[in-house]
Amino acid sequence: MGNKVLFTASTSSHIRNFHLPYLRAFRQRGWTVHVACGGSQAPVPFADEVTALPLEKSMGSPRNFQAAALLREKIRSEEYDLISTHTSLAAFFTRMALWGMKRRPTVMNMCHGYLFDGDTPPLRRRLLLTAERWTAPQTDLLLTMNQWDFDAARQYRLGCRVVHIPGVGVDFSGLREADAGSLRAEWEIPEEAFVLLYPAEFSRRKSQEVLIRAMKHLPEETVLVLAGDGTLRQDCRTLAEELGLTRRVIFPGHVSDMPPWYAMADAAVSASRIEGLPFNIMEAMYAGLPTAASAVKGHTDLITDGETGLLYPYGDAAACAAQVLRLLESADLRRTLARRAEEEAAQYAVQQVFPVVWAQYASLIGERAPVSL
Are strands 267-270 and 249-253 parallel, antiparallel or unpaired? Predict the structure, then answer.
C-alpha cells in the first residue's frame, strides 16, 4: 500500500488556483492524492479523489461539525500519511477532526492569513486566537506568509514548528505580454480614462465600499473596475448608483482571464481589511501597475510606501483618493513605482517559490526537495 496525502480547503477552487504544483509533485512521487473541500464541486487535476465537505462560512454552523465528523471517519479509514490543510475554516475543522486520535497523520497547516491582527476587536481576536491555540497540538508544521502572522504564530506557539514562506508561488506567465484588446470599448470606458483595477470577492473584508467612496474625491476621468462576485456585489452597485458613479464604477463580474484587464488598467488599488499575501497585488506589481493599497498586513509585506507602491490608512476613503491622485498626476511616479514593483514581485514567481515550499513538504515525508518545478 503506497503513501497517501489529503489536501483540505474551504473550496476546490482554492486548491486549483494555488496548489496544483504540489499535488502534481506528490503524484510524480507515486503518492495517492485526495482532496476534501467545501463549496461547489469540480474536478481537481492530479487528485485521485475529491470529497465534498458541508462547510459553511459561519464557524458555529452545525454543518461544519458534520464536516469534521466526516473527515474523522475518512482519515481513520484511509490511514493518510500526511494532511495538508488550507484556509482558516477548513484548517480548523480538519484539525478538530483529529482531536483525541491516538494515531494520527502528520499535519501541515498552511496559513494563508489569520483573520485577526493587532487592530481586530479584542473579543473577536480572542475567539480566533483561541481556536488556533486549541488546534496547535495537531499542527506539526505551520507555514505562514506574512511577518505579522509569523510573529504571532511563534509568540502563541500555534504549531510545533513554525516556518515563514514567500507564499505558494504565482504563475506570472502571460502577464507582461497581455494585450488589453478592445476591453475599454466593450465596457464603454473612454480611452483617456485613468483606470483603477481591484479584482476581489465582494465581502466586508475586501471593503470595496471604501474605493467607491474614494471615487467621489477623484476627477471625472477616473474609472474604477471592481472585478469579482460575492454577497456584497449588489450592495456596492447600489452605493455607486446612490453616489452618482454608475458610469465610473464598472462591475464586470467574475473574470477568469485577468491578464488583459491588468494590461488595460493604469493602476491597481486595494481596500482590504486584512490579507495573507494577496495574489492580486503580486500580479498587478508584476504586470507593471503602480499600486495604492490599504496599510494592512500582507500589503505591507509586499509594498514599501513610496518605493514599490503607495499605502493609506485602512478605511480612509479620502486618504485613498489622495494616493490615487498622486499616481494620476505624475507619470514619473507611476513609472518609478511600476519598475520597482516588477522587480519586487519577481521573487514570488512559482518557479522561485516552489522549491522553498516543497522543501517543507519534503522535511515531513523524508524526501529531498527538487530544485525546480
Answer: unpaired
